[in-house]
Predict the structure.
Amino acid sequence: MELAFQNFQNEYADYLNVDGRIQASLHNNINNVPRTEELTRIYNEFLNLDVKMRLAFGIRDIRLNNEFVQDKEGDLKMCHLLYYKLADLWFAYETFIKLFAQVTRVNKHKIYWIGNAAHNNYQGDPVLVNTLNIANNAFGVIYNTANSRGELIDYLNYCLPMSKGAQIAGLTAIIAKISHGPFILSHTEVLVMVYAIRNNFVHNGETTVVPAVFGYQNKARLLKILYPYLSLLLLRSTNIACVGL
């Protein structure tokens, strides 16, 4: 699946060099105790990220014991699979936020960071710009009618009770934007949407068939946009953060 995402193979190839680059830095700074300690913390956080991200990318099927539940097929199976992949990838993404803090010595909010002027090297990065454009183009195709946008609004309203603080304001603003017609989302707004769906699945017990206002076919179409987006955002952002190590 992932290998078919635009720019994924190039970014993953670059990502595979990060481990060796950190280890080389550790070797080159062996006599610099403070830097060695810092690089060790960075490397440990990178390893946490690496195992979580590889797990998300590596899940390619969910096989069920038919003594308990029937096999899922088509969009229902894809929806089920992408729920789990998105949830695991979000755990990896949260670890990237910690890695970023270790590398740059600057903390950043896991949602409201990429639109910040301090991170223009991310917001203006050609790969990330393209990644966002791909998502917005897909939104434009799938949600090109008032009815389809209304169904998405109903679903996001369903996600609202699990939101808190700035996430409520962000999700409410997205709903308002969608209600006005065809829409284009920012990186931050896509992350707000991903986080809302992930939280509903992980913390609220959402399933492929609940809520009825947004069935599994609708969810599969939405997740097919959001999962590739988060995959490329995470890979590319990690590569940018670690380029100087």
